[in-house]
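Predict the 3D structure for this chain.
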Amino acid sequence: MLSILLAALSAGVWGTGDFCGGKASQRANPLAVAVLSQLLGLPVLVLCLVLLGDGWPTPADIGYGALAGVAGFGGILLLYRGLSQGVMSIFAPISAVTAAVIPMLVGLVTEATPRTLGLIGAGCAIAAIGLVSMGGERTGRVTPKLVGLALATGAMFGVFFAILGVLGSGAGVWPMAGVRLGSLGVGLMVVAATRTSLRITGIPWRWTAVAGIFDIGANVLYVLAVSLHGALSIVAPIASLYPVSTVLLALGIDRERVRPVQLAGLGLAATALVLVAT
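Done. Predicted structure below.
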């Protein structure tokens, strides 16, 4: 039960961080926002390692964590590229659902099969992710290339979830050090290659800082959820419900209109949480 609670909490924190990163990217370079937010999250990561780290990490903890970090940052870059093409109502559901399905399948293969209600709840969570993500208007043309890009984006995030989930309880929160090492390493190389300035000031800087803090917080909560022997096939789909909080914040702060299909997704998300918790 605690692992489900932590997974749901990580989803809420992740979605909030995504919302803040999106607000910053409206006025600043998205690549700069992505890299700078991760730099600003480092003090929070150090604090979490000091408070929650048990013993010392193994090379495997850091190595697999770095691999997860590279996948996660790759997902972010592909996400920005896909959403910039003006077909969010198609791109977002495909990428979000793919991100949930991959770790669920990995969990079903590597772990004991969860209870039937739990699996039904995980399925409801995946369906809810797709429905909640169907926001925005279609202003571009849907092409096979765009669908492939959405699948690749979801696969990157799915690999991120799966790697951290498979590491299990023995690794604790130490893989997060590798995650940040991998993501920042790739991010700074891209920044150098594209000669992108990391200078962000004013309100976008504040949004970026909050995004970085919430991102690392969500990462740690997810790792804690899977370290408590939570089934990856259940925990990952629940943690992937992050679009829910993003939509709610857009409704409350930006006064965006929520479509009926998104309301159905919110209700289905609540149903999923009830089913996996029983």
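The longest helix spans residues 202-227.
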